[in-house]
Amino acid sequence: MNFSYLIYEERDELGILTLNRPNALNALNNEVFDELQSFLDSFKQSNNVRVLIITGAGKAFVAGADIKAFQDMTVHEGYDFSEKGKSVFRNIAQLPIPVIAAINGFALGGGLELALACDIRVANKDTRLGLPEASLGLIPGFNGTVEALKQVGLGHAMYLMMTAGGIKATEAYDLGLVQQLTEADQVLDQAIDMAKKIAKNSPNALRLLKTVLREGKEMTRTDAEAMESREFGNLFQADQAERIEGVNAFIEKRKPNWK
Ligand code: CO8
Hints:
Blueprint: E1 6-11, E2 14-19, H1 30-45, E3 51-56, E4 60-62, H2 75-93, E5 99-103, E6 106-108, H3 110-117, E7 120-124, E8 128-130, H4 144-152, H5 154-163, E9 167-168, H6 169-175, E10 180-182, H7 187-199, H8 203-216, H9 221-234, H10 241-251
Helix pairs in contact: 1-2, 2-3, 4-5, 8-9
The chain binds octanoyl-coenzyme A.
């Protein structure tokens, strides 16, 4: 795959996708979204990778949508751009493998929205995260209002968007927006360590966890409980090779071998 704004490499079972537009702090424009979508289309066909890490080149993870594109945007273009970003982020969220955001630097606006589309976030403890759209006369447009609300609750979501200036990564960790903090130069290594731990587990169980947790958060408690029971029960179908292997490996005191 040849991209202008993305770099992709595989290290054993891990995929590492780097947004590479450092002169604009990896700001998201139409071209970056088109490349991300092409990457996702081709990535779906590869079945070697167990965990995907997304990070940024240079001093930012992603400093938001490309503000320069907003100067003469029409209503129609604004709507389309919002829908395009949402579609790409939805496709990231729906990948059947875990996705870790390795937040090396600023994750602002669309950058935080990208990070929130990932499953888990590891961040440079010295950086800033936030939803500064209100300072530009905008509001988040790539699901920031929806995701932040789900992930940190109404009061914290209001605080984050209304103060707009961004918060320290340490505060984001306290709010639960970030799951691990690291030294600035260790973000990718830490994300890789986490990815390796995750990759030891059953790929089928990981895929199922994503479905149950992501769909469950949109459901009533009754429906989410019913889904969990149904999916748990389905694991005992005769062809559930990974459940058979996982349980047998424990009883035989050996490591499971996921095919
Ligand atoms: N868009 C375009 N260019 C950017 C962006 C951006 N979001 N952020 C930084 N850049 C550019 C700068 O203009 C600068 O370019 P140049 O050298 O040509 O002047 C270069 O990147 C380096 O940036 P700085 O010199 O500003 O670097 P600093 O270290 O001084 O500051 C900051 C770093 C604090 C991150 C600063 O760049 C900044 O505040 N950036 C903007 C952050 C922001 O407000 N992000 C939110 C954008 S809005 C958004 O994401 C809405 C999403 C929903 C869209 C819905 C669609 C309709």
